[in-house]
Specification:
heterodimer; A: alpha/beta; four-stranded antiparallel β-sheet; disordered C terminus; B: mainly alpha; MetI-like fold; about 0% strand; disordered N terminus
């Protein structure tokens, strides 16, 4: 398999009243053709900003300071606005968290779905509408032709997310970026949406980047996982390796917060505190104030993402000074 | 169960599917609002009269009949006559023309200025935004009537002198008609008073719509900015704007009357309801019809615009859409 998307050393920061907030700090990852990559982490870890940076959909206060985003070898950060619009929707489809507000309430579903087809594919209006009806049926909305004439307020949340998925997939993109698409939905609808994306992926071969903070979703859909914290990738592994052999204390914490069906019922562990807003490039591990394994070095040096020693699977990397397997129980941090 | 079967079992689903167009939807909601419908009738009449007033009036609004001064309402003069024997009904109909033209023109001017300033502030943000907001604050900090009086007092004389000079240069009698000076001053004053409201409304609309998810989603689909503006931002900003314009039209007419009442609006011989009210007030105890005619007219139109604006607000407010 060849590399489809290659992100290198991406840095994005936000201008705030006093200086900057560093939201994405040298994030690198690769996405191979047909692969599904999950990006996990708490709210505020830079997951969404990373993905918005890829297609430069950032709010005005944010700026990309360095890095490369190579899509099939072409750097998206160097494209002009026109070329960039071709990529958005054409090469990279996106779906967002809140389907209730992601559709324009003033135009009907058909006109809305036809827009990208007319714009990217140069279809006529009739043709675009016919294709839209097909797309609706493809995402499991029956009676597409009738529903095209309806407006967003006549659709439920799950239906709207299906419409969003259909629109994102309309121009057969190479990459589908799903930014927490199930977070705002009921659990039963969540499962349907996950299954739908899996089915579409298997049929079209689109590579998927699935942003989530729900590790149970990750297990069901992803091939590989990157864990983000404070704008850094702190661990990267295949999905099996991550669940069986997590090496970063943050990943361990996230897994500990996940209820499990087997084993004894016990109180779920939580990670105290919340991720920091970095006002500067840190000279410490950004996770150390919340880390039960923290040692002195964590306070003075920020670890880089490096291959895990004696990993069970290839491509397992983590950014931690401590080999947490050596420790039987977490040392109580002094801070 | 398919959608059709669902529709067959529950009439609600079917009713919803048949309502397709949002504008039709809004219109239906407006038509269901009794006060708004009642309000529309005088407004339509007003515009009709403003357009065709001079051909409808039984008498010329300037025709003086000294044999019938200060007559009470009668078969010849439905609403009586004034001091100079002019037919009050004819003058009210002609005054509608003043009210409507002042309302429309001043609203149009302030809307255009407000649209430009508001969208500049909303889109560009930063210093432009701060400047525009500051300008609107400064303008709004001055009482409307006081501002109109200041404009009238400071600009009227130089403007008239300038027109006189133009007349001397061109010999075009158009420049001799000082009523145009009055109208221009009233339009200008009203526009100056009203544009900040529209500018702030539009700025707020653009700021809020620009950060909506559907705009982000449209950008993520690669839509060009012009398309996003025309298909996503502007239609969604229309509702509150229509409501504001409806209220603004009524407001402008009331303000014009207030100016005329205070003597800084349009001057004789153009009939203005405000001027008629102020004239009638001098002898309301002996000849109440002079006050009653224009005052009742004014009240009816003001209330009608308020009801229509209210109805539009309810019809176009997305929060009430189910």
């Amino acid at each position: 398999m060849s590399v489809l998307l290659d992100v290198q050393d991406l840095q994005t920061r936000f201008k705030v009243r006093q200086g900057y907030v560093y939201a994405v700090n040298g994030v690198s990852f690769r996405l191979e053709e047909g692969e599904t990559l999950a990006v996990v982490g708490e709210s505020g870890c830079g997951k969404s900003v990373t993905m918005l940076s890829l297609v430069r959909l950032l709010p005005p206060a944010a700026s990309i300071e360095s890095g490369q985003v190579l899509l099939k070898g072409a750097d998206l950060l160097q494209l002009d606005q026109r070329q960039l619009r071709e990529v958005r929707g054409g090469q990279i489809g996106m779906i967002f968290q809140d389907p209730m507000t992601s559709l324009n309430p003033f135009i009907n579903i058909g006109a809305q779905m036809a827009e990208p087809l007319i714009y990217h594919r140069g279809m006529g209006k009739k043709q675009a509408l016919a294709r839209s009806a097909e797309l609706l049926e493809m995402v499991g909305i029956p009676d597409g032709e009738t529903r095209l004439r309806e407006y967003p307020h006549q659709f439920s949340g799950g239906m709207r997310q299906r419409v969003m998925i259909a629109m994102a997939m309309a121009c057969e993109p190479a990459v589908l970026i799903a930014d927490e698409p199930t977070t705002a939905l009921d659990v039963t609808i969540q499962a349907q949406i996950v299954e739908l994306v899996k089915a579409l992926r298997d049929r079209s071969g689109v590579a998927v980047v699935w942003i989530t903070h729900d590790l149970s979703v990750v297990a069901g859909i992803a091939d590989r996982v990157i864990v983000m914290y404070a704008g850094y990738v702190v661990e990267e592994a295949s999905v099996d390796a991550l669940f069986e052999d997590p090496r970063h204390p943050y990943t361990v914490g996230l897994l500990g917060a996940l209820p499990s069906l087997d084993g004894d019922a016990h109180r779920l562990t939580t990670i105290g505190g919340s991720p920091p807003d970095l006002a500067d490039q840190p000279t410490f591990c950004p996770f150390h104030p919340r880390c039960p394994y923290a040692i002195e070095r964590c306070r003075t040096e920020n670890p880089a993402l490096e291959a895990v020693a004696d990993a069970t699977a290839r491509g397992h990397r983590t950014a931690c000074w401590v080999d947490i397997r050596e420790l039987q129980s977490p040392v109580v941090s002094g801070s | 169960m398919t959608t059709q079967e669902l529709s067959a079992t529950s009439g609600i689903e079917l009713a919803q599917a048949s309502r397709s167009n949002l504008w039709q939807d809004a219109l239906a909601r407006l038509a269901a609002n009794r006060l708004a419908v009642i309000g529309i009738i005088p407004i339509v009449l007003l515009f009709f009269v403003a357009l065709f007033g001079p051909t409808l009036t039984p008498y010329d609004f300037l025709a003086q009949d000294f044999t019938a001064r200060l007559d009470s309402p009668s078969r010849e003069h439905w609403l009586g006559t004034d001091e100079l024997g002019r037919d009050v009904f004819s003058r009210i109909l002609y005054g509608a023309r003043t009210a409507v033209s002042v309302g429309l023109v001043s609203t149009a001017i302030s809307l255009v200025v407000g649209l430009i300033m508001g969208s500049l502030a909303g889109y560009l943000g930063g210093r432009v935004d701060i400047l525009v907001v500051w300008l609107t604050d400064v303008t709004r900090s001055m009482p409307a009537l006081l501002l109109a009086i200041v404009i009238n007092l400071t600009l009227k004389v130089p403007l008239e002198a300038w027109m006189e000079q133009l007349y001397l240069e061109t010999k075009n009698t158009f420049f001799r008609q000082t009523m145009w000076v009055d109208l221009v001053l009233v339009f200008g004053a009203l526009a100056l008073i009203q544009w900040p409201g529209y500018a702030r409304l539009i700025r707020g609309q653009i700021l809020s719509i620009r950060s909506r998810n559907y705009v982000l989603a449209a950008r993520a689909l690669g839509m060009p900015t012009s398309r996003i503006l025309t298909r996503y931002v502007i239609p969604n900003a229309m509702g509150p704007l229509i409501v504001a314009v409806s209220a603004g039209l009524g407001g402008a007419m009331v303000l014009e009357s207030a100016f005329s009442f205070l003597g800084v609006g349009v001057q004789l011989p153009i009939p203005s309801w405000g001027k008629m009210i102020s004239d009638g007030l001098r002898m309301w105890q002996t000849h109440p019809h002079l006050l009653a005619g224009p005052a009742v007219m004014m009240a009816v139109i003001t209330v009608s615009f308020a009801w229509l604006g209210d109805g539009l607000n309810d019809a176009l407010n997305p929060r009430q859409w189910k």
